[in-house]
Amino acid sequence: MKLEKLILVNWGFVVSREYPFGHTTLLSGSTGVGKSSFQDAIQLVMTGGKQHINVFNSAQDESGVSRAGGKVRRTLASYAVGMRDNLCVRPYGSHTYVVAVFAPDEGESAEPFTAVVAVEAVVSGTREQGRSVDVARKLYFVLPGSRAIEADFIESRKGNSITAVKVEDIYHRLRQRYPRVLPFENSIEDYLCKLYAEFRGGGKTLVGPREAEAAARAFVQSIARKTVGSVDELIREQVLAEPDFSDQIGHIASLMQNVQRLRKIATELLACRERLGVLKAHADAFLDAFEEAMEAELGEALRRQQDVEEEIQRLEASRRRALADVEKQQALADRHAQALKRATEMHGTAKGRLNGNPVAQERERLGREMTVATESRSQIALDVLAALTGLRGVLDELATLAKQPAPQACAYAPHVERLVVEAAAIDATDGRAAARELAAMLTGAQIDPASLQRDRFARMDAALASISQQLNSAEGLYGAVIQEQVRESDRAAALQGEIDELKRRRQGLEDGHFDLPAHVEAAVRHLETQIPAARPQVLCNLVQPREGSRWQNAIEGLLGGNRFVILVDPQYEASAIRSMRHEMPAVRQGREASVVQGELAKRRAENQALSPDAVLQELVIADETARAYLVASYGRYVKVADAQALRGAPQALTMDGMASGGFKMFSSWVEDGELAFGAEARRKRVVRLSREIEEKTRERDTHRASAAALAAWGARLLGLKLVPIAPMLDKLGETQRGLSSLAAELASLDDSDLIALERRVSRAEQLLDGHQRLSNTASRLAGDAQGQARGFERNIADAEAKLAGCQDGVRQVNARVAELIRLNPHFDPVRLDRRARDAAMEQTSASFDGRRRQQAGLYRQEREAFERKLEAHNLLSSSFDERVDFQPCQSTQGEYEWQAYGCIPAARRQIAAMLERLDQVRILNNTSELRVPRRASTIPSVRISRWPYALRWSRASIPSSGSTRSSSDWHSAKTVSRSNTGRWLRSTRSTSTCSRN
Fold it and tell me: CA–CA separation, 545 vs 555, rounded Å?
């Protein structure tokens, strides 16, 4: 058997995937690439990790050293979580799988098999306080006859990141994929017995615990550490065919190893310097953004305080101007008040002299009387114009009545005819002309009493007096019109009720219910409420015509009202008719409905067979009781062709609706809209009801329109008011004559002595009005200015309160600056305050706010990047001397960035000191010399073997000069160099006191 492939999942620092193995497999590479990890994985499968047998990393002589060379002792748990120097690749625990697939060699007849070791590891503790790793669960599996694959142990993969199957689920997962899965939970002996039994012969031969343990121990001893005494002896015995090249080969091997180790050290130091440079850049960006955000916050607070102070100064200036305006306008108002007092005295003196003159007193009296007479004339003229409007309305209404056609028989027809006859005797044209002339005369400035045509209007008043009474009285045309309007409204309301009932019936048909007669529907509802167990049904709902039959109209005509008889369960027939007779209200129509004697009908119909030509053959009857009722009642009716055949048939029916029975012949027909049997009958009834609804709707709309027209006509008649015009004309003429007499008397007065007095009074009134207006204006302006001053005072008080808030905000920001100084003693607050005050003079508070938000987002981003890079750097660092200390400090501010600010400056100074020391490392400046040897010689292809590894070169360039170093010298070269590097970095912790600019 041979190892075909090795599957590693979450094993140390090895990439999780399948690793195929050939007939002979070489594991080569520099120190730390993982050769021992592969060896330990194979050893774990072959020994089960049994104590005192399994020894991890034996080839590097590290099994007995706890921390030599910066490494830790390797254990199964440390491999599972990938632990190195208290750092874990998988800090939250791990599900690890080491799987070996074995296949038979050529010529062997055994089957392949798979050995699986599953480990669940947990991590406790923290990185700062120290971590401990324990194996929580360990399972062993052997899969005879199967080759496991990588996908069996990986749940998902995303790039280089994988999610392994949980150890607790792996057994069920393997059972679903392979026929035989042998589990061994925490039983190493049973696992080893089965493993080596498979090696011996496919599991057919049993292997005991002692034999299995001996085999595992022999395997470990075969790959155990083999110390190399010297490189010369190694090369002479293992590489060179002739002993002549031992010194040269030893020198070459020593030099090559030194070059490789120095190159690796230089590479690691360069990577460290690059990481430190990135960390320093992120720290600088964080500090710059954080301090700039604080500068923007302080600048915003100062700018807000400055804006409020400027606002207070502006308000104070405005208040002073308003108070000055108050004083100015008040003084102006006082001057005008003095002038008004003098004008009032002058006006009183002039007015007294004028009022004491007898001529002036007489003129005043005549003026008052003329004013009263003029107002009276105007009021009378308005009343006459209103009466003329009523006159024209009456004449227009009479003309309309005369032109409209003779009304039909209605309540107002006699009144209209009588008014038309009486209106014919009136000259309406002359009346309208007289009204127009009088209206034009009344709108003039002067009225001539002789031209008022009083007698003409007196005759018209007498002629229209009786007609007006007939037009708008309750006993006349108005009352008759209102009576007719009420009748039309009642007709429209009645039609609306009929329409609603028709719509209800149509909706019932559309919902699947038949349009039953009112008394039948009332009876059915009563029985459903009072005797629900009777299950009342109507005959028409249980019968439908046979498809294609043309006898439905005649048959339903024969049945007539019996189509709507009610069927109930036989035991409830007596209860149903008794309830309908005695329990239904007397006002309801349900008492007229009939209940079928179903039990009796069934007995009668038992021995009665329908003839082939029976009319009931044209019907499909769904209910047994309904069929018995129809057979017992109409089963003897037969179909005949015509009336001649009907004469000799005792009970017969023709297709066109003629029937015989009881020794008489009669018509038997129902129109389509009255049919009751079947869905088609319902459809036809819906059509008929829709047609009736449309007709009644049109009729209702006609009556509504007529009622509306009559209401408008009645309102117009009620508004016709005819007032006699002749008496008003008499009063108007008398008033006009009195006004003319007063005007003549006023014209006869001699007022030449009053002109000078009136001028003095007019002048005094002008002065009085002018000073009064100016005084009022000045007082109003003074009041406005006083109100403005009080408003400015309120605004100043509000601004001062706002200023106190701004000052408090500045104090809060200064407190944050003080916290900044406490967290970072190297911070320069004077420079921050100076820059913030300079910026506050030029920028607005809004720009400060935007700048602060921008910098806040930036320093959060830089802080997160710094922490990520720092964690990665410390994880990659091989010793504590290369790591950067970072522990957030306590801060009075709640934001985490303040805690980070307390430690990032110190971390930055530490990083800067490390970079300064690294710049002094000579090896970093001579990497080109390490990569390109100045003198080299070429030797043939050689093979250097180091158990259990091998290194191969096709053609190697090996330096030929230099002193020969022993195996122990070059074997510890890397350790010495890295120890020196640690001392360089360690020295920076005590010597770095530089501050950041």
Answer: 9
* CA–CA distance, 278 with 284 (Å, rounded to integer): 10
Closest CA to 651 of 642, 663, 643, 641: 663
Residue 172 lies in a domain: yes
How far is the C-alpha of 181 from the C-alpha of 144, rounded, in Å?
Answer: 7
Mean pLDDT on 358-368: 70
From CA 717, how far away is CA 711, in angstroms rounded? 10
For 479, counting Cβ atoms within 10 Å of its Cβ (0-12 exposed, 13-18 middle, 19+ buried), the class is: middle
- What is the per-residue pLDDT across 959-976, written as a single tens digit (0 to 9) for each? 333 333 333 333 333 333
Taking the CA of residue 432 as centre, how many other CA atoms within 13 Å lie in the half-sphere pointing to its CB? 11
Q: How many Cβ atoms sit within 10 Å of the Cβ of residue 79?
A: 28
Domain count, the chain: 2
Q: Are 670 and 559 in contact (CB under 8 A)?
A: no
Which of 225, 256, 279 finishes a domain?
A: 225
pLDDT at 445 over 70: no
Q: How far apart are CA 619 and CA 551, in angstroms?
A: 9
CATH number of 134's domain: 3.40.1140.10
> DSSP per residue over 931-972, as a string?
HS-SS-EE----EEEETTEEEE-SS-EE---S----HHHHHT
Min mean pLDDT across 422-426, 494-498, 591-595, 917-921 is at 422-426
**Residue 203 maps to a domain:** yes
Cβ distance 688 to 502 under 8 Å? Answer: no
The more confidently predicted of residues 285 and 942 is 285
**Rounded Cα–Cα distance for residues 533 and 62 (Å):** 98
The answer to whether the Cα torsion of 55, 56, 61, 65 is positive or negative is: negative
Q: pLDDT tens across 541-560, in order? A: 888 898 888 898 898 888 88
Distant-in-sequence, close-in-space partners of 826: CB < 8 Å, separation ≥ 6: 905, 995, 996
CA 633 to chain centre: 71
Q: What are the percentages of helix, strand and coil residues in the chain, rounded to 5?
A: 65, 10, 25
Domain enclosing residue 160, as ranges: 2-225
CA distance 473 to 717: 9
User: What element of type H or E holds 143?
Assistant: strand 130-144
pLDDT in tens, 830-866: 888 888 888 888 888 788 888 878 888 888 888 888 8
CA distance 298 to 837: 8
Mean pLDDT value across residues 126-138:
82
In a domain, 603, yes or no: yes
Closest CA to 904 of 295, 87, 289: 289
Single residue among 675, 705, 738 that ends a domain in this structure: 675
Q: Specify if 542 maps to a domain.
A: yes
What is the C-alpha R_g of the chain?
A: 63
| Backbone phi, psi, residue 33, to 5° | -80, -15
Close Cβ partners of 773 (under 8 Å, ≥ 6 residues apart): none
Please state, in angstroms and rounded to a whole number, the distance separating the CA atoms of residues 590 and 538.
13
Residue 421 reports pLDDT greater than 80: no
Matching residue, tokens 């079928």: 596
